[in-house]
Amino acid sequence: MSDFETARQLLTMAGQDLHVITILAAAEHTPEEAFGFHTQQAVEKAFKAWLALLGRGHPVSTTCAPWFCCWRSAASRPRRCGILPN
After folding, report:
1. CA distance 53 to 84
2. Residue from 3, 45, 47, 48 nearest 20 by CA
3. Is pLDDT at 44 greater than 70 in this prediction?
């Protein structure tokens, strides 16, 4: 699967989480945990999509340290991917 296709699929899944967040926000009684979980999932999938567009793998981890290192590394060279303005 190409990096672009991976990013597209991840953004589609992130959109599904955002849809769930919208439903939960409109509900009368929403557990904070459910809202927080889907928010975290949407952000994580969008971040993975960005890394895929940069042609970088992403850590298979649920802890923050590997993600932060990966983000710092990718953020130091954002113009190489051609998706961010100069």
Report:
1. 11
2. 45
3. yes
Question: Contact 20/37 with Cβ under 8 angstroms?
Answer: no
> What CA–CA distance (Å, rounded) separates 75 from 5?
21
How long a stretch of residues is the chain? 86
Residue 30 amino acid letter: T
Two structure tokens written together for 78? 């954002």
Residue 67 has pLDDT above 80, yes or no: no
Q: Return the SS3 of 5.
A: helix
> Residue 1's pLDDT is what?
79
Q: How far apart are CA 8 and CA 62, in angstroms?
A: 22
Residue 30: what are its φ and ψ, rounded to 5°?
Answer: -115, 125
| Six token digits for residue 49 | 């999509």
Mean of the per-residue pLDDT values for the chain?
79
In one-letter notation, the amino acid at residue 16 is: Q
The pTM of this model reads 0.68
